[in-house]
Amino acid sequence: MNARRTLVFGGARSGKSAYAEKEALAALSSGAREIVYIATAGRSASAGDAEMSARIAHHRQRREALGGSWRTVEEPLALGEALRANSGPGKVVLVDCLTVWLSNLLFAEGYDFPELGPIDAPAAFTLQRVDFLRALQEAKGTVILVSNEVGMGIVPTGAVSRWFVDEAGRLNQSVAALCERVQWVAAGLPLSFKDTPC
């Protein structure tokens, strides 16, 4: 099984996660031995947040309903390390989602960001981003990444929100450049932006 990296992105409630999960199952039926689901939001990321806990539970229930062999790894920060540890020939790694991971990195060090002016990203942000992109470039087997498109609406007023929109866009561009396939999902329907033969 050749290495194949896919970025699945779209807006909120577009159906991108459900589409990515079906793609992972299709790879499993094509000869992969295992699906590893790397969740960037997990127990540690959702403490005290009932809405995020409900979202996580919904994702888990949907995977259980789909069937297949899913092994979940919760990693809110060291995504490159988790990708290296879990990708390989005969494996499918599904990462959901990159923008939650970006948010985790932004707030991991407990900074009190200003409402106006420039935002200095935490040191962990730059280090983890570089490490993740390197791990993605070197990954073996099938890797499917889910991300949000957050830059198509009104430009936010707060400095940290604008920084997040900009960095999410830059991250999506960097990931798309490394992936053989890029799928946009809207209203549950995929549209292929890129499909390079392996």
Automatic annotation (TrEMBL):
Class of this enzyme: transferase
InterPro entries xrefs: CobU/CobP, P-loop_NTPase
Pfam family membership, one: CobU
Annotated Gene3D superfamilies: P-loop containing nucleotide triphosphate hydrolases
Catalyzed reactions: adenosylcob(III)inamide phosphate + GTP + H(+) = adenosylcob(III)inamide-GDP + diphosphate; adenosylcob(III)inamide + ATP = adenosylcob(III)inamide phosphate + ADP + H(+); adenosylcob(III)inamide + GTP = adenosylcob(III)inamide phosphate + GDP + H(+)
Pathway(s) the chain acts in: Cofactor biosynthesis; adenosylcobalamin biosynthesis; adenosylcobalamin from cob(II)yrinate a,c-diamide: step 6/7; Cofactor biosynthesis; adenosylcobalamin biosynthesis; adenosylcobalamin from cob(II)yrinate a,c-diamide: step 5/7
Highest taxon of the lineage: Bacteria
Listed GO MF terms: adenosylcobinamide kinase activity; cobinamide phosphate guanylyltransferase activity
Enzyme Commission no: 2.7.1.156, 2.7.7.62
The keyword Thylakoid is annotated on this UniProt entry: no
Keyword set, alphabetical order: ATP-binding, Cobalamin biosynthesis, GTP-binding, Kinase, Nucleotide-binding, Nucleotidyltransferase, Transferase
Purpose of the protein: Catalyzes ATP-dependent phosphorylation of adenosylcobinamide and addition of GMP to adenosylcobinamide phosphate.
Family of this protein: Belongs to the CobU/CobP family.
Protein name: Bifunctional adenosylcobalamin biosynthesis protein
Species of origin: Herbaspirillum robiniae
